[in-house]
Amino acid sequence: MEGFLVRWLTTVAFGLLLAAVGCGGQDLATHGSAIRLAARRAVPLTVQQKDAVPHAVPGSVPDDADDEDDKDYWEGVDFTADDFAEVRRFVKLFYIDPSYDKHMAWIMAANGALSTMIPPREMLPEDYYKKKKTSSKERADVAGNVSKLKKGDQFVIREAKKDDRERPTGQLSPKEIRNKKREYREKQEEYERFFARVSFTEADFVRVVEFIRTTEVPSNPKFRMSKVYIAAAQGYLGSLDPHSTIISTKAWDESTKSTVDGSFEGIGAVLTKKGDDTIIESPMEGQPAFKAGLRAGDVIVSVDEKAITKMDLSKVVKRIRGTKGTTVSLTIRRLGEPKDFTVAIRREHIEVKNVASHMVDRHPDVGYVKMTGFVPSTRESLKEAIAALELQTKGGRLRGLILDLRNNAGGLLQESVDIADDFLEQGVIVSVKNPSERDDVYTAAAGGYRFPLVVLVNDNSASAAEILASAIQENDRGLVVGDRTFGKASVQTLLNPLLRRDYYIKLTVARYYAPQGRTIQVAGVIPDISIPPALGEDMPVGFREEDLAHHLSRLNADYVPPNRDIVAKVLDCDKRAGMADQIVKADPNPQIKPDYQLLKAADYLECVIQTGEAFQQGAGGAL
Q1: Quick check: is 488 catalytic?
Q2: At 210, is the secondary structure helix, strand, or coil?
Q3: Who contacts 521 (Cβ-Cβ below 8 Å, separation ≥6)?
Q4: Which residue of 33, 43, 471, 473 pairs with 27 in a disulfide if CB–CB is 3.0 to 4.6 A?
Q5: Distance from C-alpha of 454 to C-alpha of 477, rounded to nearest angstrom
């Protein structure tokens, strides 16, 4: 258990790459937002957030998810000890906290390096190992062969079992998830307390690397020492905070491309895992799964006659995906059907764009826009989407807009600032503060959209998405509804190494602050009105910044909801005129799972419109 936990925490920053959570800077040399040096070019960056506590928090993924283990983004990148040294020099020059714990950094670098061995190894404090070894409850956590590099070392090297991951059986309750998260946190804290008493320096790290070299290279001609130094650099940076790391250019380019256009070839369904079962959360309307008659709640028993019960969701997804025009056979178990049945589905091209929009049913002239990330084209795509929506209205103008930022992991700082400016007339959008530079304060200029606005968020809305949501909320421009956001209020910048262009060094360089002057680090954006994902359900536990090891601290806790008076009137109106609950109750077994949060957001927006409540600052008093 410990072995997997430590390796997961060591490499979390890189493992989170392809989901994106954060915002990058623009020009630190002049405005605290990008770093420009003679032979280096800073690239605005997005930080990533993807996994929750490993295998503890159930989640949903579309059937376009990749099995990331099949891809080696570092293939062809020759990363050496000199490159690792350059990473450390960049940390010294640019990292937000120059007093970071170098002792723990070297420990995590060593553990990262050891994780590349076959089988993987890890370092454990000797006293910690002995304590676990003598405990009947914890003995299994440190099972495996152990050795020392030399007799006087205060640490041991353990050969990990093939799979140290703890896999819960069955569906976890919210209470069990909270307990599991607390358990992981306490284990990590205990591990670091023991290591704090262990002498470990750069010289010890060098000894660990030499152990790896002499053990692996002679017996495995395919073993690459560059992998060792890559993992060491990721471990070193992961000790700083969960968003600093190194990223290959291939991985960054693919992440950006998939954010702009996430289209794929498959059946068009959202899958989720419940216990050992893979469930169709909802087919996408008009797509092959929908046309084949699949329904929300269907259990997939097998794919092409191969059982998938207990199989990891990513592997199930990989089996279902395939080339357009080919056929996949799914065996389905459906409530109310006496026997399982098989459905053959022809795979098609499923279009998924960064910005998608449509008019909202049952709410005349109310538009909806979904944004999944902040990339260079997002603002223009948003403008085009709004213009297209306006053409679909009776009078050429929208009565209101729902801006959906759920599962928007963030992106470029400037894009979020520019989009916020499009909705605001005046006021502060965000402040960026770097200990070694002057503060940057981004403010709105007059002009822009004036229709009423509701912003939808959840625990996967992060960083740049949180900047936009807090700017709308704290400038009295609109309501924010849904769930508390991720809580990442730090700024990262991508740096090119001096003579390389095949990877980036990503460092946290600043914090950002919401318009009222508070940082939403850990706290997140608290919605004006909370909406659970489904009618009658409790709000899910979620996974947020506070669940990541070594996250930046929360600086303030005071928070005064800015829209309390308006919220009271909106809730009263919703009790009288809201339609969401009735719509859901009218069809208890729908083919497509209703988006309850969207339905409620539309009701709340309608109430804002009908009650005539003006968000004075943002809309100039005109709704």
Answers
A1: yes
A2: helix
A3: 487, 488, 489, 490, 511, 545, 551, 552, 553, 554, 555
A4: 33
A5: 9
The yes-or-no answer on residue 115 being catalytic is no
Task: Spell out a b/e string for 318-357, using b for 16 or more CB atoms within 10 Å of the CB, else e.
Answer: bbbbeeeeeebebbbebeeeeeeeebebebbebeebbbeb
Residue type (1 letter), 186: E
The CATH number of 264-350 is which of 2.30.42.10, 3.30.559.10, 2.70.98.10, 3.40.50.2000? 2.30.42.10
Query: Active-site residue among 463, 506, 600, 613?
Result: 463
545 closest CA partner among 11, 41, 16, 61:
16
Residue in this structure with the two tokens 């093939």, named with its chain if needed: 162
Other beta carbons less than 10 A from residue 279's beta carbon: 20
CA nearest to 24, candidates 432, 354, 424, 383: 432
Residue found by looking up tokens 């209020």 in the block: 489
Residue 307 pairs with which residues in a beta bridge? 302
CB atoms within 10 A of CB 392: 13
Dist. CA 554–CA 522, nearest whole Å: 6
Please count the residues of the chain: 623
8 A C-beta contact, residue 45 and residue 494: yes
Concatenated DSSP letters of 465-495: HHHHHHHHHHTTS-EEEES------EEEEEE
Residue 102 and residue 99: Cα distance in Å, rounded? 8
- The type of residue at 199 is S
Q: What is the DSSP letter of 409?
A: -
Predicted local distance difference test score (pLDDT) of residue 46: 29
Tens of pLDDT, residues 314-355: 899 999 999 999 999 999 999 889 999 999 999 999 888 899
- Two tokens at 8? 């997961």
CA distance readout (Å), 189 to 41, 110, 184, 194:
37, 18, 9, 9
Tokens 């409540």, residue located: 613
List the 355-359 sheet strands across, edge first: 355-359, 366-371, 400-404, 453-457, 479-482, 529-530
Backbone angles phi and psi of 503, in degrees to 5? -155, 165
Q: Where in the chain is the domain with CATH 2.30.42.10?
A: 264-350
Residues of the chain with pLDDT under 50: 1-69, 616-623
Interior CA angle at 614 toward 423 and 584, to 5°?
Answer: 85
Q: Which of 132, 370, 488, 506 is catalytic?
A: 488
Cα dihedral value 114, 245, 508, 523, nearest 10: -80
Which of 192, 216, 281, 474 is flagged as catalytic?
474
CA distance 333 to 279: 10
pTM of the model: 0.82
Burial of 69 per CB tally in 10 Å (0-12, 13-18, 19+): exposed
Does residue 463 carry a catalytic annotation? yes
Which residues, other chains included, contact 254 with Cβ-Cβ below 8 Å and sequence gap of 6+?
18, 73
How many other CB atoms sit within 10 Å of the CB of residue 526? 16
